[in-house]
Amino acid sequence: xxxxxxxxxxxxxxxxxxxxxxxxxxxxxxxxxxxxxxxxxxxxxxxxxxxxxxxxxxxxxxxxxxxxxxxxxxxxxxxxxxxxxxxxxxxxxxxxxxxxxxxxxxxxxxxxxxxxxxxxxxxxxxxxxxxxxxxxxxxxxxxxxxxxxxxxxxxxxxxxxxxxxxxxxxxxxxxxxxxxxxxxxxxxxxxxxxxxxxxxxxxxxxxxxxxxxxxxxxxxxxxxxxxxxxxxxxxxxxx
Length: 239
Prior knowledge:
Layout: H1 2-14, H2 16-22, E1 42-46, H3 59-71, E2 81-85, E3 96-100, H4 109-120, E4 124-128, H5 132-146, E5 153-154, E6 184-189, E7 195-201, H6 205-210, H7 219-238
Parallel strand pairs: 1-2, 1-3, 3-4, 4-7
Antiparallel strand pairs: 5-6, 6-7
């Protein structure tokens, strides 16, 4: 598996010039995508309040999906992604939801209701791309409205999410840029005791996914971010 992953990443990186020339969007193109009928579709959650829910779109999705297609047995294609409003019934179609910039997010009552129902039905949410005490407080206030009865906890390196596909020794992945504090991962469990929300604080894992076809970031943390992303997806589909 590690060899296949390395080959897939190498192919993606060596194709970087073509990818950048073809897309060159880096999150500026907000046109939604109609995904193919694959087993997995990456659902990026759009919240109603102003904020960076679109950050790293769509390159992060396309790069992660392309590596999953090459390295795993998941039925997924590069274009298997979709923007989905949190207050819509469409979120229940996809087992994996991704939220960017929760430090800029203020959930509406309808979004709070859907978020909670999504998790209660077995969905998995990755929260990413925020840092600092102020943004953490905003994120926590929103999640306390969604999960007033659930504890947010610091995740340990022994958590099973590290062994769903790749065997990863540590959850630690350094932030792609200096945020003044070490990256950390927090979690919230569902009623069955399985992880339902993973929170990537003082970090921006999606930025690694987006920029994997460029020399901007070091190779090792970029690859580790992809490996973690694939494990997160496999966990969402099996728990």
